[in-house]
Amino acid sequence: MFDLRVSVVRFLIFFFQSVFHQISRKICGPPKRREDDARGKVVVVTGANAGLGKCVAMEMAKRGAVVIMTCRDVNKGIQAQNEIQSSTGSDKITLVELNLADISSVKRCANQISSRHSKVDILINNAGIALNSPSTQLTKEGNELHFATNHLGHFLLTKLLLDRIKNSEAGRIVNVSSSGFIMANFSIKDLRMSKLGLGLGTFAPYCNSKLANVLFTKELSKRLADTRVKTFSVCPGLVNTNLANGYYANENLQHYLIKGSLGCIGLSGEDGADGILHCALAKGIEDTSGEMYRFGRLMNFDQELTSVCGMPTDSVAEKLWQKSEKLLDLKQLH
Ligand SMILES: NC(=O)c1ccc[n+]([C@@H]2O[C@H](COP(=O)([O-])OP(=O)(O)OC[C@H]3O[C@@H](n4cnc5c(N)ncnc54)[C@H](OP(=O)(O)O)[C@@H]3O)[C@@H](O)[C@H]2O)c1
């Protein structure tokens, strides 16, 4: 049941925590750039043409990785690829079309990657949308658009690439989530979100999809426990990218407030990407597989997770896995 008071309290906690962390990050300056080597690693980045994904792709190319940029819009992708190539001098960057909201596109993308590469070392599930729509938007398969793009598409891509990731000496899967998951209004019985309440509920589809990223990471790490593959979810903090453009498309007061705040306290794409790179490359974090990181630090969000899920996190995570397979009509379990 949607409880507006609980959501408001959660929102205030989240808001003040985020502002505090953002400001301390700004005051302390950018983190010491981590120079973990990525030479020889095959890295797949979703949503690599803009924002955080582009910064991650750029940094991976600088560090010598074979970078596979997956992009929804091929023209935007080519432009970003050219930019990264000329800035880094790398000749190891390729582009694959991927629309996460379209199951057949995800399958095509995974097939192309698998046919060209015998292993994938790092998969960065980064692409995402945040829209503000008065009514629930559905994909052609009938799934809620945020959930389909931000979670289901990545869930499917990960499953289809898993054999290739297992071929890596030290595979990693990084799911870019958000600590905004604490504002989720989540029901495992209503993943199509047809019964979402109003109020903060308009923000809920995005937060629900980010909660799904965290739960997916936890369940994936459990299922991969006897493999070399590690998985992390990461909150990049508030970052000045295009993400808010979809949510605050109308140029009203809200639009200018959020744009202004992002301008003041939002991190640059490079700083936001640093936390993602940490989870992708840092040595010594392997035994925290399944956990969430923010600004390169392990976060303990267990209490918030249990409170948002309304039941033990492990059991919701397992149910979400099964329901995701059902929604995608997948028979084979990993
Ligand atoms: N920015 C923040 O403050 C913030 C905070 C917490 C978490 N995050 C997370 O960080 C991730 C990256 O966001 P960002 O801030 O870099 O946003 P962004 O600048 O808007 O970039 C989003 C990327 O995702 C791609 N994308 C959107 N829909 C897609 C689809 N259906 N299929 C494939 N690609 C699609 C976009 O492609 P197009 O260019 O074609 O639209 C773009 O490349 C997201 O998962 C977001 O939830 C961001």
TrEMBL record:
Position of the signal peptide: 1-21
Q: Is Signal tagged as a keyword?
A: yes
Tell me which UniProt keywords the record has, alphabetically: Oxidoreductase, Signal
Question: GO MF annotations for this entry?
Answer: oxidoreductase activity
Q: Does the keyword DNA repair apply?
A: no
Q: Which family does it belong to?
A: Belongs to the short-chain dehydrogenases/reductases (SDR) family.
Protein known as: Retinol dehydrogenase 12
- To which species is this protein native? Folsomia candida
Taxonomy-wise, where does this protein's organism fall, top ranks first? Eukaryota, Metazoa, Ecdysozoa, Arthropoda, Hexapoda
